[in-house]
């Protein structure tokens, strides 16, 4: 079910920038896929992160300087599992990594936005939008949510996490109240894929009319 929580307006002199976010396992990627099929220009921050941390990514030199050989494979590739474990247990390491990665992500988004014209729509999937406070970069924010049991089932079944690991990842992220505080639109992803597609269509109709 799609709900509008607050008003927004589209800029007259540039493209409309829409952020799509939500907790892990909420279905935000599926919703973004539905929206992107209807129009707009997609920006996937996770894809950018994979690129800049893959070989020969722009972030690798800074990551090596910050964290040393402990997060590196013998063959010269970044050990993503070791890095993820480190930042999940060490807030200072997490902040250091974010200070390296986030500026590069926003630089890439600026590059994607630059050729867009007024009337165009940027659809940016930003998983940690609430946690990083970057919602102010966008004209409106769409939050996708799902019941806890559904999110746990997805994380256990699709990502092969234990229930304890899944709960820990969910609990480490922003709360529902924190997401509601910045959301322009709220999507309750508790139905079928057809329901989610209908919500995306309804939202696209609103976005394309402003």
From TrEMBL:
Q: Which reactions does this protein catalyse?
A: 3'-dephospho-CoA + ATP = ADP + CoA + H(+)
InterPro entries noted in UniProt: Depp_CoAkinase, P-loop_NTPase
Query: Which Gene Ontology terms cover its molecular function?
Result: ATP binding; dephospho-CoA kinase activity
Q: Where in the cell is it found?
A: Cytoplasm
Q: Mind listing the UniProt keywords for this protein, alphabetically?
A: ATP-binding, Coenzyme A biosynthesis, Cytoplasm, Kinase, Nucleotide-binding, Transferase
Instruction: Give the matching Pfam families.
Output: CoaE
Q: What is its main location?
A: cytoplasm
What's the top EC group for this one? Answer: transferase
Provide one Gene Ontology biological process annotation.
coenzyme A biosynthetic process
| Pathway(s) where this gene product acts | Cofactor biosynthesis; coenzyme A biosynthesis; CoA from (R)-pantothenate: step 5/5
Instruction: Identify the residues that bind ATP.
Output: 25-30
- E.C. numbers: 2.7.1.24
Q: Which GO terms describe its cellular component?
A: cytoplasm
What PROSITE patterns does the record tag this protein with? DPCK
Gene3D superfamilies attached here?
P-loop containing nucleotide triphosphate hydrolases
Fetch the PANTHER family from UniProt: BIFUNCTIONAL COENZYME A SYNTHASE-RELATED (PTHR10695:SF46), DEPHOSPHO-COA KINASE-RELATED (PTHR10695)
State the protein's purpose.
Catalyzes the phosphorylation of the 3'-hydroxyl group of dephosphocoenzyme A to form coenzyme A.
Family named by the database record: Belongs to the CoaE family.
Record-given protein name: Dephospho-CoA kinase
What is the organism field in this record? Mobiluncus curtisii ATCC 51333
Q: Taxonomically, what lineage is the organism?
A: Bacteria, Bacillati, Actinomycetota, Actinomycetes, Actinomycetales
In the UniProt record, the gene name given for this protein reads: coaE
